[in-house]
Amino acid sequence: MNEPRTLGPWLRRFLAEHIVTERNLARNTQLSYRDTFVLLIPFVSTVVRKPADRLALDDLSSRRVLEFLAHLEDERGCSAQTRNLRLSAVRAFARFVASRDPALLEWSAGIRAITVKKAAPRPVGWLSKAEMKALRDVPDRRTPRGRVEHALLLFLHNTGARVSEATALMVRDLELGGRGDRHALVTLHGKGGKLRRCPLWPRTEGVLAELVKGRSANEAVFLSRYHRPYTRFGVYRLVERCAARVPELEGRTVTPHQIRHSSACHLLQSEIDINTIRAWLGHVSLDTTNIYAEIDIEMKARAMALCDAAEPGPDRPWKEDKGLMAFLDAL
User: Fold this and answer.
1) Cα–Cα distance between 204 and 152 in angstroms, integer?
2) Radius of gyration of the chain (CA)
3) Helix (H) or strand (E) segment spanning residue 295
4) Is residue 134 part of a domain?
5) Which residues are catalytic?
6) Sign of CA pseudo-dihedral 125, 129, 133, 134
7) Considering its fold, how many domains does the chain have in total?
8) CA–CA dist 294, 228 (Å, integer)
9) Nearest alpha carbon to residue 289 among 269, 313, 308, 273
10) 118 falls within a domain
11) What share of the chain is helix, strand, coil (3-state, %, to 5)?
12) Are 169 and 130 in contact (CB under 8 A)?
């Protein structure tokens, strides 16, 4: 196959066609890959002293990719996890190019041979039930804006939803009222286009029902003070602002994802089985959910108490057991 060796056309096909049409990957994956090349292309352009539009595939050598990864860590202060995330995007691009032009297999192999860096797992931060309640109570529910903010925080705690799932929530995704003795439900649009349904607490149902009263089914549930759907940044800013007003959280960094962790830990403390929590959070693998069983000290203490062995009795050689020997002789 006689393909052009200029980097630009390959990159356009990878980001606009391969990821979206052929792989059907999530929009966030496309944006993450794009952000990687937004950083990589200017770096390579500076190193080889070429305009970005004139860069060739050969300019993106494995040595320059390694230099770029070192640049991320040393000059931009990125963590090993971020370094590995950027590398995964470049390796995916190299794999795509090699699948279209066998003549570039050697070039692709050099980049794909770059290994990920071992990184210590980040500690999972979460809030206690009292801290979570204090966070939810910060917004002033006497005002329309405060009621929306309280509803959003309560919804995140109830469902353990990701920020993207909360910002994409539409009125039609809610099943409120008229269900007899059954729980109200919400349909969440998760990563990779996966859907899951999550029950709502009665107080969450009441708050959301009041919030969406009179709204059309195609409107977003959570609207900012400008009557536009909340953005990811808006949710992060809300959580940060509310956490700053909770004395117990002083000096701690609180994010929406920590609310998701808190929801999982509170379910675990309520003795909900781990597989149910996996489905609740929308995890594909149970291994992802198992991290919550590792971070709850109270549960570890209870497990230790259950496993505490009784004091062993005095040793008694089996030969002294006359009843047993008599039983065997009688057979």
Assistant:
1) 10
2) 28
3) helix 291-295
4) yes
5) 162, 191, 257, 260
6) negative
7) 2
8) 39
9) 273
10) no
11) 60, 5, 35
12) no
Co-location of 80 and 136 in the same domain = no
**Kind plus residue range of the DSSP H or E element containing 184:** strand 184-189
Give domain status of residue 296, yes or no: yes
| Residue among 69, 71, 47, 70 nearest 59 (CA) | 47
Are 281 and 289 in contact by the 8 Å Cβ rule? The answer is yes
What is the block-wise mean pLDDT of the chain (331 residues), using blocks of 10 residues? 73 93 86 95 95 93 96 94 96 96 94 90 83 96 95 96 94 82 86 86 94 94 93 95 94 93 88 85 79 64 54 55 62 54
For position 280, what pLDDT does the model report? 86
Is the domain of 292 the same as that of 178?
A: yes
pLDDT the model gives residue 286: 76
How far apart, in whole angstroms, are the C-alpha atoms of residue 80 and residue 83? 5
User: For the domain that residue 231 is a member of, what is the CATH number?
Assistant: 1.10.443.10
312 by Cβ neighbours in 10 Å (0-12 / 13-18 / 19+) ranks as exposed
pTM: 0.72
Q: Which domain holds residue 254?
A: 129-305
Which residues, including other chains, have CB under 8 Å from residue 258's CB and lie 6 or more apart? 125, 126, 127
Whole-angstrom distance, CA of residue 273 vs CA of residue 88: 34
d(CA 16, CA 22): 10
Say if residue 133 is in the same domain as residue 255: yes
Give yes or no: residues 108 and 185 share one domain: no
Q: Is residue 167 part of a domain?
A: yes
